[in-house]
């Protein structure tokens, strides 16, 4: 993933026993990722007016994962405390960016604005973005 932010420590994982949905994807699969995200938002009871922004945030992070990462990625979702949590992981190495004057490179920034919480974990095991969104309205 290639964004102009510093990696943050901190990591969230599904609570024991929580149902987790997972989808493996590559660049050509991004339409399926968007549909997966929309379906998960509806299943979590997210208000209809929030689903579009949710899908945009997920798409931005998923696109980064398969364009700046290792080419393969996965998305996982679970619900905690009524909120929908989304994790996107790729095996790529962290590359800070964008460069001044570049076009693009704002996906993580957009996702951070649209989510109620965003955590970024990077290291030798790849890059993981975890976002939290209010579920039931």
Give your account of this protein's structure:
By secondary structure, the chain is of the alpha+beta class. The protein has one domain (21-133): Heat Shock Protein 90 (2-Layer Sandwich). It is 31% helix and 26% strand. It has three helices and five strands. It has helices at 30-43, 48-68, 107-114, and strands spanning 21-25, 73-80, 83-90, 117-123, 126-133. A five-stranded antiparallel β-sheet has the order 1-2-3-5-4, covered by helices on one side. α1 (30-43) packs antiparallel against α2 (48-68) and α2 (48-68) packs antiparallel against α3. The longest helix has 21 residues, at 48-68. The protein is globular, with a radius of gyration of 14 Å. The N and C termini lie far apart (31 Å). 35% of the residues are buried. Residues 1-11 have low confidence and may be disordered.
The third-level CATH topology is Heat Shock Protein 90
Q: Which strand-content bin applies to the residues?
A: 25-35%
Q: How would the global form be characterised?
A: globular
**Segments where pLDDT lies below 50 for 5+ residues?**
1-11
The helix fraction, in percent, is 25-40%
The total count of strands amounts to: 5
Please write the CATH class name: Alpha Beta
How many angstroms separate the termini?
31 Å
The chain-level mean pLDDT equals 84
Main-sheet strand order equals 1-2-3-5-4
